[in-house]
């Protein structure tokens, strides 16, 4: 297994385990609404200075997203070793730091939680767009699409424009765009033993 394969395996495992952890945490959270509740409410729910933590939902969510962040950080290093591409490695590492931060600093951390959440989605979207240079075929263009969708949904979420989806629904537009890209990116990285050659791109 080379660095490219290892990075793909870690990204795939991290994303899949996080999705499973999030779904289990939602199931165990009393009265959880995918539309009304933020995803981070699974780790700690804070409104008007009052915080409620439901266990074991909080432990499952915080652990799974922290683990995901750690694997993303390791993957960013492997991607740098394989492709010597500083841009995608740096962007992905920032997103990984954000994921880890969400787990370590839930809503009880106040503004810190908002900052690490912004880092996750902003740099995650840019990572998807930047990965265009490493991918071939349709997935190269799908990566750009997923990245743009994440950034647009992030802008709408921050502007509190939820398009009838609710805050949780719009946040999932951000999260699922990023998660689907990471899973696809991971599959592409581990699907071949041959080293890919970074492509020329009109985005550079």
What does this molecule look like?
The chain has 204 residues and is an all-alpha fold. The protein has helices at 3-28, 57-83, 86-104, 111-130, 138-158, 166-190; strands at 45-47, 50-52. The chain has a single domain, classed as Rhopdopsin 7-helix transmembrane proteins, CATH 1.20.1070. The protein is built from 6 helices and 2 strands. α2 packs antiparallel against α3, α4 (111-130) packs antiparallel against α5 and α4 packs across α6. The longest helix is centred in the middle third of the chain and has 27 residues, at 57-83. The model is unreliable at 200-204 (pLDDT under 50).
Give the C-level CATH assignment: Mainly Alpha
CATH architecture: Up-down Bundle
Total helical segments: 6
Mean pLDDT across all amino acids: 92
Strand order of the largest sheet: 1-2
Overall 3D shape: globular
Judged by helices, strands and strand pairing, the structural class is mainly alpha
- How large is the radius of gyration? 17 Å
Provide the domain count: 1
Strand content: under 5%
CATH topology: Rhopdopsin 7-helix transmembrane proteins
Number of strands: 2
- Let me know the largest β-sheet: 2 strands, antiparallel
* Percent helix: 55-70%
